[in-house]
């Protein structure tokens, strides 16, 4: 259900805003989106994993708060990020 270290490094490389960036809002949202997709696939198979479902809801809430923050601070970057990640279809 978690993401591999290689995938996390690739996401950091793709969404970082500067050379030493490892924790900007964009990177956090990208990592959370990957984790949400993995847990969603897991829950499609394991329908009775209610603890996993609760964890998924926590991650979705955290991503929502981060996106709301980014939208209020940098609207063009927010629009680019949701387009690249495929959110808000």
Report what the structure shows.
With 89 residues, the protein is mostly helical. The chain has one domain (5-85): Helix Hairpins. The chain has helices at 5-15, 25-45, 50-73, 75-85. The chain is globular, with a radius of gyration of 14 Å. The mean pLDDT is 94.
Rg: 14 Å
- CATH fold descriptor: Helix Hairpins
Straight-line distance between termini: 24 Å
Helix content: over 70%
Average pLDDT figure = 94
CATH class categorisation:
Mainly Alpha
- When the domains are counted, the total is 1
Run of helices and strands: HHHH
Number of strands: 0
State the CATH architecture.
Orthogonal Bundle
CATH homologous superfamily annotation: S15/NS1, RNA-binding
Assess the beta-strand content as a share of residues. under 5%
Number of helices: 4
Shape: globular
The low-pLDDT segments are none
By helix and strand content, what is the structural category? Answer: mainly alpha
Question: What summary fits the major beta sheet?
Answer: none
